[in-house]
Amino acid sequence: MLPSAQTDESVRTKNRLRTAVEEVIQVPLYGLVHPEPHDKPDVVEAEPGRPCLLISAGNSSVRVVVPPRAGGLQIATTYARRLAEAATTFADRCQQLQDDDQAAQQRAPHNEKDN
């Protein structure tokens, strides 16, 4: 077997194994995330054509990957856009609550100890 043929077969085997593992390990997930100032989501692509949205907080992370099936790219695209919309709604609501809290603090009478 030529070296390039071995490499191609190795890559195909690796991809088949990854797909099998991803299909077996899919389990329901529920988590509560309390983000810290240094936490941030990121997009990585360890292999060309296999983007991954990495959502990390503390010692935990969730990876959103393209489903390994026909139409997987469209499914991932739609999901990511919906996730972005929900994240924007969440950020807008948090900002509104922060603004309301700051306004209430400015309107509140100062404690006599502060004077």
Describe the overall structure.
- The structure is a single chain.
- With 115 residues, the chain is an alpha+beta fold.
- 51% of the residues lie in helices and 13% in strands.
- It is built from 2 helices and 3 strands, in the order H-E-E-E-H.
- It has helices at 3-25, 72-107; strands at 42-44, 52-57, 60-65.
- Strands 1-2-3 form a 3-stranded antiparallel β-sheet, with no helix packed on it.
- The radius of gyration is 23 Å and the shape is elongated.
- The protein starts with a helix and ends in an 8-residue tail after the last helix.
Q: Largest beta sheet, briefly?
A: 3 strands, antiparallel
- Give the structural class: alpha+beta
Please state the overall shape, judged from the principal axes of the Cα atoms: elongated
Beta fraction: 5-15%
Placed side by side, the strands forming the largest sheet appear as 1-2-3
Number of beta strands: 3
Radius of gyration: 23 Å
| DSSP helical segment count | 2
Q: Helicity level, as a percent range?
A: 40-55%
The SSE order reads HEEEH
The end-to-end distance, rounded to whole angstroms, is 85 Å
Unreliable runs, pLDDT <50, ≥5 residues?
none
Mean pLDDT: 83
